């Protein structure tokens, strides 16, 4: 198997990448009097894609695999526990979205790599860049309006996923 350097050397003249998408979001220093985000998950107060209810906070108290195999989708039986009363009745077939966090070691590694140690806890406002040429540009509803960089890296980005084509083009 060829590594990336060998691919570029062998096919460099024939490789093309589409142009990067227009940048339209920017981070702006937040005023010191702006309210810090709550300690709960940053995205819990945002509207999530395909959501039917607000975000509920649960802990997984028990789980087991009820079906799995090469030719079938893995099915889990998950028992959720909540510290507060929830006014929603779950029914079989409901879809559950999970708001996760990246490991502290992974976030530390990213902060170190980007040399952001001194600004990782600083509060930023997420805004549409006024200089953008993108039509109807808006910040996605599931992105918090105010965010410290460390919490953005910890709770809003998937640091373990395979980079998407848009990321590579940028």
From TrEMBL:
UniProt-listed InterPro entries: CysJ-like_FAD-binding, NADPH_Cyt_P450_Rdtase_alpha, Riboflavin_synthase-like_b-brl
One Pfam family here: FAD_binding_1
Keywords: FAD, Flavoprotein, Oxidoreductase
The UniProt record lists the keyword Flavoprotein: yes
Residues of the Sulfite reductase [NADPH] flavoprotein alpha-component-like FAD-binding domain: 49-169
Cofactor list: FAD
GO annotation (BP), single: methionine biosynthetic process
A cellular component annotation (GO) from this entry: cytosol
Chain ranges passing through the membrane: none
Oxidoreductase in keyword set: yes
Entry's Gene Ontology molecular function annotations: [methionine synthase] reductase (NADPH) activity; flavin adenine dinucleotide binding; FMN binding
Protein name stated in the entry: Methionine synthase reductase
Species of origin: Culex pipiens
